[in-house]
Amino acid sequence: MVKVPNRRQDSRQGSDTPKLEDVAARAGVSTATVSRCLNNPAVVSDATRKKVLDAVRAMGYAPNFGAQALAARRTNTFGAIVPTMENAIFARGLQAFQEALRQQGITLLVASSSYSPELEEQQIHSLVARGADALLLIGHDRPPKCYSFLQKRQVPYVIAWVYDGDEGRVSIGFDNRKAMKSLADAVLDRGHRRLALITADRRNNDRARQRSQGLVDAMTARGLDPETLAVVETAYSIANGAQALEQLMHTTPRPTAVMCGNDVLAAGALTQARKMGLDVPGDLSITGFDDIEIAEIVTPALTTVHVPHRNMGKGAASLLFAMRAGEDPGPSVELEATVILRDSLGPAPDRAP
Amino acid sequence: MVKVPNRRQDSRQGSDTPKLEDVAARAGVSTATVSRCLNNPAVVSDATRKKVLDAVRAMGYAPNFGAQALAARRTNTFGAIVPTMENAIFARGLQAFQEALRQQGITLLVASSSYSPELEEQQIHSLVARGADALLLIGHDRPPKCYSFLQKRQVPYVIAWVYDGDEGRVSIGFDNRKAMKSLADAVLDRGHRRLALITADRRNNDRARQRSQGLVDAMTARGLDPETLAVVETAYSIANGAQALEQLMHTTPRPTAVMCGNDVLAAGALTQARKMGLDVPGDLSITGFDDIEIAEIVTPALTTVHVPHRNMGKGAASLLFAMRAGEDPGPSVELEATVILRDSLGPAPDRAP
Predict the structure, then answer these.
(1) B13 — phi, psi (to 5°)?
(2) Where is this region: Disordered (chains A, B) (predicted)?
């Protein structure tokens, strides 16, 4: 790893080392231009940047700075944009990502898009403008112009929380669809036939879409009609999970198992079931997804899918290190997500309520 | 709000408007120096900055840019550094902060210091180097050099999550000590005399220190010896809360009420009590602090202190807007924190276990 001192350290160089002014003179540009090259190369024309770089190399300017770091305008700051900082859905992954970055002296700056594509686009621009060397993004769903912007600005990025081999982008994650199918199989194995799904808005959320599809896959594989699946779409929150469960308990026929798009919704559903005097899992089974900490502290503990939070964060860091160094990061990485059986899932009740 | 176009827009100015070179000539400095004033005023001496600013004002340079924005090198990016992104302790406050910023077109970048003063210092430097216009920080505890750095770089900041009128810094928060005293009063009112505290490391955490002190205040006010208080210091996590509770249940005499420094520790303590076959609150009362969402979803729900998460976030944004505009933000803001009584607190058991 090339250590990149900041500009103030440059001024501590001995008098025999070339200065900004010397580089400017050799490159035939103003010192302001050299300075711009150091701070914001994207606003400098390619021709000018090349002139400055050539001068830097020729004169051995700021040997600690490294011509490559200059060209790459390395700031040792990485960015991550997650859909939410609430409910710790992405917190453990981010923590592992940050720990890996810190070992390389890299600072992590995080933005939270509130699941808004417009806000995420602004944040991508802002992080790049602020000099982020590389970005971690969640899921593939975003306008193509975001990808072309990153391509144009040559900012390496990794997509996490998803794995689907053929998207043509470097990703690290798990197969959301397959994982939800496995969980739905466990539900169906216990005799449940009237199922419901509480999911996030699936439009701009490939993870939610794939999880929903995995449930449909499991039903179809057993000859069940996916049209019988009751679905509520709502934003991830405990309160929304509670409200959705109440709504579902008033549908006829009443579901015997409610599968939730994540643990946050499931925790809300569980709380609401208790408020309504329903026994979980006696009257109703509830499942989550993610295996964040609340999955274990609610009563009964949630059956859920354990997502490889820490390995995604750590692995994303490794991929970005390689990309930033100009190396081939290799293919996208698929990690395992595993079904965790806990007490919120039980056999289907004998009698219809 | 003055809209601040970026520098590239300056180049679209008509030919009759003064240019960087003209300002440099008038100020008697190089264009590099003017440029530095625009990008990184803190590395320019006060005298030079004044010369450049005078020239800018006299010539009406970049009328859309605004001399004040120039002095403040506005990027429309604010930073926040929180001790942790896990467990949603700061998530709701950050969310409200971000919403207020977004209304002004400001992007929020967040860093998480893992309760490490060294890491926080790096992050302060990184956010300032990346051009953050203003910073939100949690609590007062940090090396003086962090404050002098921010002062020197003229980056406005607000301290949140604490209120203590006389620190000489603009803060918005609540009185952690008073809030914990109120909660401890509620515990003592129910006859508990053998108390325990599970707290975060109090060395670099003024909130934890003040909460601990509030409990001591309540004991002292009733003539109880604070030396009888059993204390476990541990990092905030559910697992650590569980472990600390187990440890406390093996002390003699066994506490009848365990007060936790936050809801995360309390959720862990509650889970562990259940594992040990203890009835909460029949055998043991447990309290939290913060009133984050898990406080309501655990069984029994946690008695805790409701912290004004959203109002702190929103209010911090208002203070920073004022400071960035060069206005007097007024005195520090004290918000209310209120005791929320839920089922995890009950009367002290009649018989000693």
Answers:
(1) -65, 155
(2) 1-24
Examine residue B132 and state whether it is found in any structural domain, yes or no: yes
Question: Whole domain around residue A229: which residue ranges?
Answer: 176-307
Kindly report whether the peptide bond that precedes residue B349 is cis, defined as omega within 30 degrees of 0: no
So what's the pLDDT on residue A3? 37
Contact flag B94-A85 (C-beta cutoff 8 Å): yes
Do A289 and A326 sit in the same domain of this protein? Answer: no
Name the residue among B232, B226, B215 with its Cα closest to residue B269: B232
Q: What is the total count of domains within chain A?
A: 3
CB pair distance less than 8 Å for B268 and A297: yes
DSSP annotation string for B278-323 = --TTTT-EEE-SB--THHHHSSSPPBEEE--HHHHHHHHHHHHHHH
A254 and A132 in a common domain:
no
One domain for residues A190 and A293 = yes
Residue A343: predicted pLDDT: 98
| Distance to chain A for B236, nearest Cα, Å | 13
Q: Are residues B12 and B38 in the same domain?
A: yes
ipTM: 0.77
Would residue B69 count as lying in a domain? Answer: no
- Chain A residue nearest residue B107, CA to CA: A123
CA A85 to chain centre: 11
Q: Does B81 touch chain A (CB under 8 A)?
A: no
Is there a single domain that holds both residue B119 and residue B35? Answer: no
The C-alpha angle B319, B323, B327, rounded to 5 degrees, equals 105
Q: Do B294 and A294 count as a contact with CB atoms less than 8 A apart?
A: yes
Instruction: Name the band, by pLDDT with cuts 50, 70 and 90, for residue B300.
Output: very high
A113, B302, B341 from A320: Cα distances, Å: 21, 42, 48
Percent of chain B scoring above 70 in pLDDT: 87
Name every residue whose Cβ is closer than 8 Å to that of residue B5 and which is 6 or more positions away in sequence.
B64, B65
The answer as to whether A128 is a domain residue is yes
DSSP 8-state symbol, B172: E
Domain membership of residue B343 (yes or no) is: no
| Structure confidence by residue, pLDDT tens digits, B155-168 | 999 999 999 776 68
In this predicted model, what pLDDT tens digit does every residue of A57-100 receive, in sequence order? 777 664 333 344 444 458 999 999 999 988 778 999 999 999 99
